[in-house]
Amino acid sequence: MLGPPYNHTMETPATFFLVGVPGLQSSHLWLAISLSVMYTIALLGNTLVMTIIWVDSTLQEPMYCFLCVLAAVDIVMASSVVPKMVSIFFSGDNSISFCACFTQMYFIHAATAVETGLLLAMAFDRYVAICKPLHYKRILTPQVMVGMSVAITIRAVIFMTPLSWMVSHLPFCGSNVVLHSYCEHIAVAKLTCADPMPSCLYGLIGSSIIVGSDVVFIAASYNLILRVVFGLSSKNAQLKALSTCGSHMGVMALYYLPGMASVYVAWLGKDTVPLHIQVLLADLYLVIPSTLNPIIYGLRIKQIRERAWSTLMHCLFYLSNVGS
Asked: What pLDDT score does 8 carry?
């Protein structure tokens, strides 16, 4: 049951009801299983990456520090939505309080804004490492890294706090049934009995400015990187540089392509793209990058791959000794 479909009073609803994936209720069990598997991989993979970087003194370079923060953000992003989605799909527990709904919305938007900033910082790190290797340690000092991390966080807070505030202060006097599997901004804004367009436009413009500017700078960084790489005389040096950047470019494609597709489909394709496709796209955009990021980095970055394999062998050896 979805609960009472309408609330005709002018009071703010104490509870919202999340539908899940409209039209795919019969597939909710399979979605719950799939999300549980992906969430488990995301938690284990990102925790492993963070642990390896934290305890290995040879992995204290800026690139690995940014990767450690990225893994933490991925855990926050997935944890903001997946447990509740699994609860909806598996047991039908689709109620969420007013405060919890907007807290979830805030963490989702803030985490996505921080993640795109981290991807830009990582692209800058690769630019300095490949294009200005002799000045790498002088440019990317610990103070600069902390400053970049603080700036990324402040930018996310400045842009995303007004968005959640604007929607939470709109009057809700109609239905309290959210046609989504989490408190997605536009899906919640549609329930207000005031014009939601200002907050929706703010969300679209804000995300376009943040992501658009980051993508431009990332593209410029990799354009310069590729120029330097293909100017190297050694084929081995070219392959090594491309391999180092390959994981970053893969993660960026994994993050930006479905993310922007989700945002613009909700705006431009809402009358042509079925609602269940829009919801699934938004759900997977938050879960898939968090799941695949540690796998991509683990496969592409030799130091992390070797350390992860060593840790796994040590654990298996310890368990076999305990069992015997």
From this structure: 40
The residue type found at 69 is V
Options 3.40.50.790, 1.20.1070.10, 1.25.40.10, 3.40.50.300; CATH of 15-323: 1.20.1070.10
Q: Which of 125, 145, 143, 123 lies closest to 135 in space, CA to CA?
A: 125
DSSP annotation of 13 reads P
- 107-129 pLDDT tens trace: 998 999 999 999 999 889 988 98
Residue 57 pLDDT = 75
d(CA 3, CA 19): 10
Q: Residue 14 — φ and ψ, nearest 5°?
A: -75, -25
Determine the residue type at 36.
S
* Residue 156, Cβ density class (10 Å: 0-12 exposed, 13-18 middle, ≥19 buried): buried
Q: What integer pLDDT is reported at residue 85 of this predicted model? A: 92
Say if residues 216 and 203 touch (Cβ distance below 8 Å): no
Q: What is the pLDDT of residues 29-72, one digit of tens each?
A: 898 999 999 999 999 989 988 888 888 777 778 888 888 899 99
Closest to 2 measured CA to CA, from 35, 34, 32, 28: 28
Both structure tokens of 287: 């879960």
In degrees and rounded to multiples of 5, residue 53 shows phi and psi of -65, -35
Assess contact for 242 and 225: CB atoms under 8 A: no
Please list the ranges in the chain whose pLDDT falls under 50. 1-9
CA distance 76 to 71: 9
Q: Which helix (H) or strand (E) holds 96?
A: strand 95-97
**Per-domain residue ranges for the chain?**
15-323
- pTM value? 0.84
